[in-house]
Amino acid sequence: MKLNRRKVLMGGLAMAGMPRFAKAKDDGFLELAAFETQMQLVEGEYPKTAVWGFNGSVPGPLLGGVQGERMRVRLRNELTENTAVHWHGMRVKNAMDGVPGMTMQAVPPQGSFDYEISLRDAGTYWYHSHNRSLKQVSKGLYGIVVARESSPLDVDHDLVVVLDDWRLSPDAQITDDFGNMHDLSHAGRLGNYIHAVVDPLPTHFAANQRVRLRFVNTATDRIMPLALQGVEGWIVARDGMPLARPEAMDQITLGPAERVDAIVDVTAEAGGEVLLAFREGDQGYVLAETPVLAGARARRAPVEALPPNPITNITSVADARAVPMVMEGGAMGGLRGATFKGENMDMRALVQEGQVWAVNGVAGLPDAPLFEASLEETVVLNMQNDTAFPHAMHMHGTHFQEVLPDGSFGPHKDTVLMMRGEQRAFAFVADNPGKWLIHCHMLSHQTAGMKTWFKVS
Ligand code: C2O
Ligand code: CU
């Protein structure tokens, strides 16, 4: 199919852009109903696309509020199959984590589930289906959560930029080929239509305005290299968590599920524009463009670090529990065999089960946890990517910090892109009791076996 990827932001009525959160009803619950709906995903003469959304839109309603607040969300399932919502990157209580079969029962059609979520950390998070997630997230069951800092930042716009990669047929419908063996065993379900939703959508920027951009990669499998034009700025947070020192922003690469918060100044002159592009080699596809008008402002001083979140910083891994995590399998990976559901299987048997990736020789979710940590113990995951593909390794329950070669620790992250052949270590304090997943957030790989879990008690 040939889809025009250049999407022009025509501008709605929204003026200054600050997040507008969905509102709870009188009983304190915000209703999140999952159902199929039609959406004008592709501009032009294309028909509407049948999607699965929350409250009739993709992304679903913007949830959140101010750090420290609590939100109550009632998920209602109006689909014809089970679903569940996971709060990606949020340090929630285990029972609220939204993992069917581990922390809750999947919500059946016509069923509902009440979540109570504390906004412990400021930053940019997201929610998505965690049941048959390759299919359900591909179809659109996701949305963004923003927890604002308790004292507002000095910015003129605060925008969410939601990136997705859709695999569409020539009539702009989501293709129904979820989990075919080629996708599962290679780089996943890559689409043919990369799309950005900017919320709220600005009609224009003014020269020297300061804009906070909250990038979220919701794609099931696509790594997104992004470039911006007409702005200069800093990355101030990754995966929701503030960086101790803002980094000068150049190109941004987001693996599936990763987020970056940037604060940028509009440096394009009046009459110019601000462009966001998906960059592949020396090709770029414009995802969003906003005209720049004259402004009275002078450029502000460089940004300062955001206030830190109340998460423990790793100071030493001297007494940590070390856990090896070897990722194996996939095409060209030479996986000879693995254990699946307690049985040793050769490659042929594994393929028949749709399982082609393994962690430490086990494909799929093992009965026994990868490790058990006691509360407040420091754990180091020694990840090793022995496959021919990158993986977006994600941990539930808390964030980890990379143990860097010089002995210092990287920023708090919940998802990290492990390139082929890489060996890297990640440390965290096991301070959230319960059963938590670790899996590849390339949801094709997760579906096909790259997942495990650990227990904190
Ligand atoms: Cu974003 Cu286990 O998920
Ligand atoms: Cu993977």
UniProtKB/TrEMBL annotation:
<keyword id="KW-0560">Oxidoreductase</keyword>
<feature type="domain" description="Plastocyanin-like">
    <location>
        <begin position="45"/>
        <end position="149"/>
    </location>
</feature>
<feature type="domain" description="Plastocyanin-like">
    <location>
        <begin position="347"/>
        <end position="456"/>
    </location>
</feature>
<keyword id="KW-0131">Cell cycle</keyword>
<dbReference type="GO" id="GO:0005507">
    <property type="term" value="F:copper ion binding"/>
</dbReference>
<dbReference type="GO" id="GO:0030288">
    <property type="term" value="C:outer membrane-bounded periplasmic space"/>
</dbReference>
<dbReference type="InterPro" id="IPR008972">
    <property type="entry name" value="Cupredoxin"/>
</dbReference>
<protein>
    <submittedName>
        <fullName>Multicopper oxidase with three cupredoxin domains (Includes cell division protein FtsP and spore coat protein CotA)</fullName>
    </submittedName>
</protein>
<dbReference type="Pfam" id="PF07732">
    <property type="entry name" value="Cu-oxidase_3"/>
</dbReference>
<keyword id="KW-0132">Cell division</keyword>
<dbReference type="InterPro" id="IPR002355">
    <property type="entry name" value="Cu_oxidase_Cu_BS"/>
</dbReference>
<dbReference type="InterPro" id="IPR011706">
    <property type="entry name" value="Cu-oxidase_C"/>
</dbReference>
<keyword id="KW-0946">Virion</keyword>
<dbReference type="GO" id="GO:0051301">
    <property type="term" value="P:cell division"/>
</dbReference>
<dbReference type="InterPro" id="IPR011707">
    <property type="entry name" value="Cu-oxidase-like_N"/>
</dbReference>
<dbReference type="InterPro" id="IPR045087">
    <property type="entry name" value="Cu-oxidase_fam"/>
</dbReference>
<keyword id="KW-0167">Capsid protein</keyword>
<dbReference type="Pfam" id="PF07731">
    <property type="entry name" value="Cu-oxidase_2"/>
</dbReference>
<dbReference type="Pfam" id="PF00394">
    <property type="entry name" value="Cu-oxidase"/>
</dbReference>
<dbReference type="InterPro" id="IPR033138">
    <property type="entry name" value="Cu_oxidase_CS"/>
</dbReference>
<dbReference type="InterPro" id="IPR001117">
    <property type="entry name" value="Cu-oxidase_2nd"/>
</dbReference>
<dbReference type="GO" id="GO:0016491">
    <property type="term" value="F:oxidoreductase activity"/>
</dbReference>
<keyword id="KW-0479">Metal-binding</keyword>
<feature type="domain" description="Plastocyanin-like">
    <location>
        <begin position="199"/>
        <end position="268"/>
    </location>
</feature>
